[in-house]
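Many introductory courses stop at the sequence. We go one step further.
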Amino acid sequence: MSFKVAIIGRPNVGKSTLFNRLVGRKLALVDDTPGVTRDRRVHAAKLYDLHFDVIDTAGFEDAAASTLPGRMRAQTEIAIREADLIFFTVDAKSGLLPDDRTFAEIVRKSGKPVVLVANKAEAKGAQGGMLEAWELGLGEPVPVSAEHGQGMPDLRDAVIAALGEARAFGEDEDDDEEIASSEVLIGEDIADPDADEVPAYDDTKPMRIAVVGRPNAGKSTLINALIGEERLLTGPEAGITRDSISVDWDWRGRRIKLFDTAGMRRKARIHEKLEVMSVQDGLRAIRFAEIVIIVLDATIPFEKQDLQIADLIIREGRAPVIAFNKWDLIDNPQELLAELREKTERLLPQARGMQAVTVSAETGRGLDKLMEAVIRTHKVWNSRVSTGRLNRWLEGILAHHPPPAIAGRRLKIKYVTQAKTRPPGFVVSCSRPDAMPQSYVRYLTNSLREAFDMPGVPIRMALRTSDNPFAGRARKR
């Protein structure tokens, strides 16, 4: 069995930098601004020959439970309860502050094994902070530099001493699970999961779902409602979520990995470096997802930014599903629903037939319908049509509505085949691809979508010349 480590400490002592060091990737946002991390993030980690799960947490702050810092603290306290070992982290460069002593007492009372991590030990004057750390009564401080990777061998030895060899070197997780965890990284240097052709639809693999939308649309509340626990911070303040946080979940036997993302605003309104980093992390989550749930505030739907987000998702080839949230606040549901469906078709023609579901994350209404729509869309996104069926369809299309003549010459279409899935992509072999009007390409796309029941997902249509090795050669007399 693997063990779980929670990284605990006041704001800005380097917890997220240490987290990134242990997981081997830049997953957590890191900035000099205190309080960057808000939700707790869990990921597989490695420290030489030790394998474990590590939890990044918000900085401990002394605040009322109803405030945002208070709710962040509650998430950190949950991490302490879940952990087998605590890395209590202090800043050796700046020395101890009153909050360090207060929170060290909380950690001590938890009864969990503790390793006292003195971070930023490479800085000038850090020796004084190291000596101060002894005052916390948590044992000998381990000097490290999370940023530069210094002190990691000593940290490994401290973990073994705290847990004992039997616990520290417990059985590794199943290889399949380890591989799966490595495939869900959000951060830098992520390979494209759809680079190779994807096999037929397989419902045994975890489905990757990103939840996106404008600030305060209810994204985190929706995820909490789906999984049935207060896993993510929520509240009336816009912009609470900063990192793209992943949550593992099981819905009716189907494994799901949900990604919560920071609210997306227009570029002109994004001024702070930290918000830019948060939005970039959200964009990476979209690119890594399979399904993207676009959460719209039903009281003010289809703002310009909503449409830009949807257009981005479609251009990236992801499968969109719309959740009209806060439906419990609507006074005229039937009338508004008809209006929203009409607007969805008119404003988002790139994915005609997109699934749109009314929900209330606050009351739990419509959540099963939302997930059913997600599963349907995922199946369409993975669907494949045989070449024989495609060309029988093409015969009917050409008989009913052949391509137009350009400069007196009729365009000829030879055949069509499906080249890929996720999203469905088709190759049309024709005589002059450059001359084919875009209006006719759209006609082919819409006809194919209707004939093979592919609503609500982007469809790629590529034109190419026929593979005739003698094309362009002079005819022999």
